[in-house]
Structure formats: C-alpha cells, structure tokens
HTH lysR-type domain-containing protein
Amino acid sequence: MTKITLKHLRYFEAVALHRHFGHAAEACAISQPALSVQIKELEQILQTTLFERGARNTSLTGFGTEFAPRARAILQGVDELQDMARASKQGIVGRLRIGIIPTIAPYLLPDIITKLMRTNPDIDIQVRETLTSHLINELADGRIDAAIVALPVSEPAFTEVALFDEKFVLVRPEADRAKPTPDRARLTEMKLLLLEEGHCFRDQALSFCATQSDKAREGLDASSLSTLVQMVGAGIGVTLIPEMAVAVETQSARVAVSSFPEPQPTRTVGMIWRKTNPLSTKLLGIADLIRPA
Amino acid sequence: MTKITLKHLRYFEAVALHRHFGHAAEACAISQPALSVQIKELEQILQTTLFERGARNTSLTGFGTEFAPRARAILQGVDELQDMARASKQGIVGRLRIGIIPTIAPYLLPDIITKLMRTNPDIDIQVRETLTSHLINELADGRIDAAIVALPVSEPAFTEVALFDEKFVLVRPEADRAKPTPDRARLTEMKLLLLEEGHCFRDQALSFCATQSDKAREGLDASSLSTLVQMVGAGIGVTLIPEMAVAVETQSARVAVSSFPEPQPTRTVGMIWRKTNPLSTKLLGIADLIRPA
DNA sequence: TTTTTGTCATAGGTTTAAATTATTAATCTG
DNA sequence: CAGATTAATAATTTAAACCTATGACAAAAA
C-alpha cells in the first residue's frame, strides 16, 4: 500500500487550479501522462474520485472540493518549513539556549544580552539559571546550547573557552572597616558565611580559606550572594563574593569591602558547549563577544 | 534542487522521537543507512543541521526543536486527508449539491430531504433553487451534482431520469366555482396569468393553451406560484398551477381549483446529472428514493 | 453522417531516486 | 588498549517516476 506524497498534492493542486490535465502538467514541468498517472494513484490511495473527467472539461468532484483547501494548507506548511530554515540562518544562531550559574548571572547577563541583541537583533535568547551540575546535565542532553560557568569543568565531551578571571573580595560588617585585611590564614578564625551546597562558589571560597574544614559550621548557608551580604550587614559574620558582584550587592548594605593581598583568590569564568554542537564556530564568536577584554 | 518530501518528514519525526538513527530506522522499517541518507538530504535542502550526532546519543538542534512540531502538524494534516476520504465514503454520497426549479422546490423538497436524511443520516445536502437554464449551466460546470427539473432537457452530456408526471389544474376566482371547467380552446378567451419569462412552467402552461400567443399580454407576470394564486384570488384573472402546488398555495386564497377534462395538461419532472459524474450509480439510487410511486 | 480536434488514459522503455548489504570511522566503556 | 556502539560512506540492486508514442472517447465541425 503506497502512501500520499507531496508530489501527489502538488499535482492535485495544479489540476484543481487549471481544471485541465495538459495545462497542469505543463505548469508542473512534466508530461501529461506522468501527471495523469500520479492523480490516478492519489485517487486510488484515497479510494475516491477527485476529478470528474469530461471529454472537454475537467472539474472537481464534491470530495475534491473539500480536499483542495486542506491540500493547499499542507503544501503551504511545507513551504513555511523552508522559510523557517532560511530565516533561522540569518544572524548568528536564531535561537540561543544559554545556561548561567547564579553567582554570575545577575551581574553578567544584562551585559551579555545587550551585546547579543545589538549585534544580532532577531536572536531569541533563552536563559537558564541553575547550579553547574544541572547545567552540565542539560548541556549533555542538548537542552541548552551553551553554559557560562566557572572553569574547569573537565568534561571530555565539552569545549571550554575562558572568558575572564575574577577576584574574590572580603565583605565585613561596616564596623570592621578600619581593621586590617586578614590574609587567608587569619580568615579561618572568623565566622565565614557561605552559599548552600552545590554552588561552585562555595567550594571556591572554602578552598581559599585553607580550611580543610566543614568544621562545625551550623546551618547558616545562604541561597544567594545577596542574602549573604545582608547577613554580613547584620553582623552575623563575614563572607567572600566575586568582585563583579560588589557594585550590585553592597549598594544598600552596611558592609565594608576589601581586597586581599596577593595571592588574591580568583576563579576563571568560561563558556562551555558540546564539541558536537554544529553551532561550535558560532559559539566561539559569541564567546569573543561576551569577553570584556 | 530537490524538494522536501513527506518521507523526509516522516523519517525526521522518527529520529526526533527515538533520538537514535538505528531505532528510528527500525521503526520506519528501513535500514539505518537509508535513513541517514534521507536525513542528511533534508538537512541539505534546509541548509541547516537538524540533529546533533554525538558518539553515543543523538539530539535535536535548536532549529530541529522548532522544526519538529511543524513537521508533525504537516504529517497529521496528511493523515487527516485520508481520514476525510474514508469518512466521505460512508453513506451514499457524503455531500449532495442539488438544484431544483422554483415551481417544484417548495412542494417536493421537504419530502426529498426527509427521505435522504432518513436513509443517510450523515449526508450534507446543499440546495440551489433557480431557473432551469441556470441549473443547466451550474450542472455543466460541476457546481452542482444533480438537478430536478421538467423534462426533457435534451442535453447530450446529461443523464435524464423521470421521477413522476404531474397534472396542471385551473385556478379561478371563488366566484367562478359553479361555472363549467373550460377546455383549452375556451381558455384562450380568459385572462391567463403567468410566471415571469424564464420559468419553464410558463412555457408549459402557454403551450397547453393553444395560444400561439404572447398576444398583447400586459406586464402581469408573477415571480412565484404563490403570487399567481393570490392574484387570481383578487379577481385579476385565472391561472394554471401544478397539481402538487394546490395543497400549499390555495389554502388561504379565495379561489376555486378544477381539473381539466382529457386531454389534461401535464409535465414530466425528472432528475438530471452529468453522465461523467462518478456518482452516477448513486444518483440513480437517489432518484429511486425520491420517486413517489 | 463522417471527419477532425481536444483531452485524458494506457503501454513500453529509460532515467532517476531510494533502498539494501557491506564496510569504514569515530568515540565511548571496561 | 580491545571491544562495543553508532552513524556515515560506498557499491549495488530495486523500485518509482518520467517520457514518448499510441489509443480511446466524446464533442465540434464539415
């Protein structure tokens, strides 16, 4: 049992339009017999007559009349598929599904979006903000196209591109402003507030603090840098935040911010994507665009 | 330049569903290379990548994700075409576009529709009421499937089937009830009211009246039998109407109805359709159904 | 009527497209 | 590194679609 093909529908449409097999065949750039055979086959598939062949004129049957607009709609749908493909190629990508970790997103995203929109007015940007481990899964599954995270990720399936390094700064209560900046050794003596488990920034901060440590830290983990800073402002302890977050987060809090002496704590922020992603080269371009330097 | 085919879309859908070329190929009952080639061709046509082939898993690209629902919609539309064809075949015809002349329609239509609906609950009946000449044109053009008119029509392209004969009766003012029924010769002396030009019934009535005649008849033509009877009731003249119309039209008028002595005037009502109409045999069945005897 | 014309269907042979099997290439997994 | 998994490529076969030529039929013209 053969199936309906678009060829059948295209030929049908031509005959319906011209009401003449010969003219329709010409319009389709094929011979009249070829068209006749195809129409006949379509009628056989449908088990119905579509055209009434008179000796001197051809017309649609009742069923053919109902059939025509649907056939036309299908053909139009197919044309639209092609248009869609063409449209999606102008500009860098068309749609970009990008993931960013929470300790970067609020500070970098406005800038990224602005830059992408400027160079690429029709782009459709979809952002996903969650923990690195989730982003890695979603990237692997093809649910997002790229992710901006702290490097290294060391997944062999991913390409990693560094975007920039960022320093961590110390946030203390306003009252501590005059005190000297502690080095990493002295930090262990202070009450250090951290993000919840799962945030890479938590681990990065901890690793700087020379604490081997999870030493009796009661449940004071915060779910965002913003909360962390507010807690510091309330005098509960001190914390580290990325330099990039300073402007936004310490605006309205009664806290003192200070840089560490060398060796300063840092992390590398980068972009990752599947090596197999066909957009690879374009993603490289996007990385260049985002990179501030 | 090759074009998109439904095969492309069917294969695409399978791969999108299974996210695995081998399994998709199995689902399509073809070999994996055949499917790979077709998908590749589709991607070439669209000038875009639809799938991201990893070494161990396959996923849709961003564009593929947008492409999928449209492809699915098209395939569904095609399936519906087939359903439509199947549905249209149950019952006698599915849709019947029928034309009837005005001097028959009001009296016969209710009966016809009742009968058709009873034997054929899902039928879609479309009625066109106009003059014979118009019906013939519309029939020839395929705009209607059949027509009920007075025979003969004598179009070689049409099949004619007689339905029944109907007599014409004389309608006189109530005051004339006691007078003897005039024969056709005496009719010429009376003021005979007729339908407008174009109605076949006008010609049929005239031809009975032995008038060779269009003799100075002022513009008193009516546009319906109903009007004609009302005019008679008002004492303007006399008229002929088909027997079938008596019950409906003389109900509320102050007129006297009488049959003619032999030879009585009659006409044959019949059904016509294009010989080339594929529904021919079914239309014969419908004629049998309509025929009162 | 007979002939001619217009129009679609059928037939046989050729070309093009699609499928098959077999093989290769690449990349994970153990 | 060896074995397994998965998709791509190659060569060949099979099937579909098309073309030219011809036939059938009905309408129009002679």
Remarks:
- Chain B has a mean pLDDT of 85.
- Strands of chain B lie at 51-53, 58-60, 95-100, 124-129, 146-151, 158-173, 192-193, 238-242, 255-258, 266-274.
- Chain B touches chain A through 49 residues (CB under 8 Å).
- The longest strand of chain B covers residues 158-173.
